[in-house]
Amino acid sequence: MRSSKRANDDLRTVTLERAVARYAEGSCLVTFGETRVLCTASLEERGPPWLRGSGKGWITAEYSMLPRATHERTRREVNSGKPSGRTQEIQRLIGRSLRAVTNLPAMGERQITVDCDVIQADGGTRTAAITGAWVALHDCFSWMRARSIISVDPLRDHVAAVSCGIVKGVPVLDLDYAEDSGAETDANFVITGSGGLVEVQGTAEGKPFSEEELLALLRLAKGGTERLVALQKQALAQAAPDKKATA
């Protein structure tokens, strides 16, 4: 039994709350257990200079962790002059994940920036950010369609992400910080609603893991992301965008 009393294939309690930021074109507060991430999508009426004349739009992401998102205060990265390597890697991952399910030409030559700010961290911040960022992006596109800025929905599919790991020799789903910090193997899976793999990140912290263990983690991740996509659909189906969807 895990310390959280969850079964090995159980997610933490996950909620998606839409329209939480008054001024953003799309927003979502996502929680995975004690991890909380605020995702906001902001429209810019021009794309990056290197795409000028291409007829294509662009989606990019920025990720940050608030100073007291963890047990001890961490220094704001803006004060150090540039984001850390970890931050750059995560925000590139979020951007890639969203672009993988978006028809960029359908956006026109515009850019959407999705900001993912970690309010509280207890493991799985990047996977929570991707799952919530998709909802914020969806609502940004809905905002654009309602104002005839675009005529079709650029989103081709859902995308969600979840962590898995091998803890005390057992594959488990959706690691919290205590599990992640002691895992022999930890991995992150980004998977579309139709089951396509966008990205797989896996690291052996102790001994190398086997192909069989990797496949066991993939099975857990597919089950977990299927539930997350169902939760995204539940959140979007609610008439009032300011209500929570909970799993």
TrEMBL record:
Q: What is its EC number?
A: 2.7.7.56
Give a yes or no for keyword Ubl conjugation in this entry: no
Supply the InterPro entries for this chain. Answer: ExoRNase_PH_dom1, ExoRNase_PH_dom2, ExoRNase_PH_dom2_sf, PNPase/RNase_PH_dom_sf, Ribosomal_Su5_D2-typ_SF, RNase_PH, RNase_PH_bac-type, RNase_PH_CS
Origin: domain of life: Bacteria
What residue stretches are annotated with the Exoribonuclease phosphorolytic domain? 11-140, 159-222
Keyword list, A-Z = Nucleotidyltransferase, RNA-binding, rRNA processing, Transferase, tRNA processing, tRNA-binding
Pfam annotation, one family: RNase_PH
Give the catalysed reaction(s), semicolon-separated: tRNA(n+1) + phosphate = tRNA(n) + a ribonucleoside 5'-diphosphate
Summarize where phosphate binds, as residue positions.
R86, G124, T125, R126
Protein role = Phosphorolytic 3'-5' exoribonuclease that plays an important role in tRNA 3'-end maturation. Removes nucleotide residues following the 3'-CCA terminus of tRNAs; can also add nucleotides to the ends of RNA molecules by using nucleoside diphosphates as substrates, but this may not be physiologically important. Probably plays a role in initiation of 16S rRNA degradation (leading to ribosome degradation) during starvation.
Q: Which family does it belong to?
A: Belongs to the RNase PH family.
Kindly give the NCBIfam families that the UniProt entry links to this protein: RNasePH
Subunit arrangement?
Homohexameric ring arranged as a trimer of dimers.
Kindly provide the name given to this protein in its UniProt entry.
Answer: Ribonuclease PH
